[in-house]
Amino acid sequence: MSSKGHVPIRMCIFCRKRFPKDLLKRFVFKKGMIVEDKCKTLSGRGAYCCTSPECLKKLTKYGHKALKGALKLGN
Ligand SMILES: [Zn+2]
User: Fold this and answer.
1) Cα of 70 from ligand 1 centre, angstroms
2) Structural domain boundaries of the chain?
3) How far is the CA of 19 from the centre of ligand 1 (A)?
4) Where in the chain does DSSP place strands (E)?
5) Looking at residue 66, what is its pLDDT?
6) What is the mean pLDDT of the chain?
7) d(CA 32, CA 44)
8) Topology of domain 9-73, per CATH?
9) Other C-beta atoms within 10 Å of 15: how many?
10) pLDDT at 75
11) How far apart are CA 42 and CA 50, in angstroms?
């Protein structure tokens, strides 16, 4: 019935696989801090991480550094 809207695809910064944006955690860099964009309302450049256990582990371990690098490189 209702047609599916276009789902943006984003890349996980750790495994570099592509996923529909909805399945990824989004982070933005704000005032020198990495903030998880839980409500998907924060503006600015975002970095994405998928929810596989492997990537979540990496996120915990070197999340800040990795996200910082990813955000600096831009989209
Ligand atoms: Zn991943």
Assistant:
1) 13
2) 9-73
3) 9
4) 9-11, 18-20, 25-30, 33-36, 46-49
5) 86
6) 86
7) 13
8) Hypothetical Cytosolic Protein; Chain: A; (3.30.1230)
9) 14
10) 47
11) 18
**pLDDT higher than 60, residue 74:** no
Strand partners, 47: 27
Ligand 1 centre to CA of 1 (Å) is 33
Q: What is the pLDDT of residues 38-73, one digit of tens each?
A: 887 888 888 999 999 999 999 999 888 888 888 775
| pLDDT tens column, 11-27 | 999 999 999 999 999 99
Report how far ligand 1's centroid is from the alpha carbon of 71 (Å). 16
Ligand 1 center to residue 28 CA distance, Å? 17
Query: Quick check: 66 and 39 in contact, CB under 8 A?
Result: no
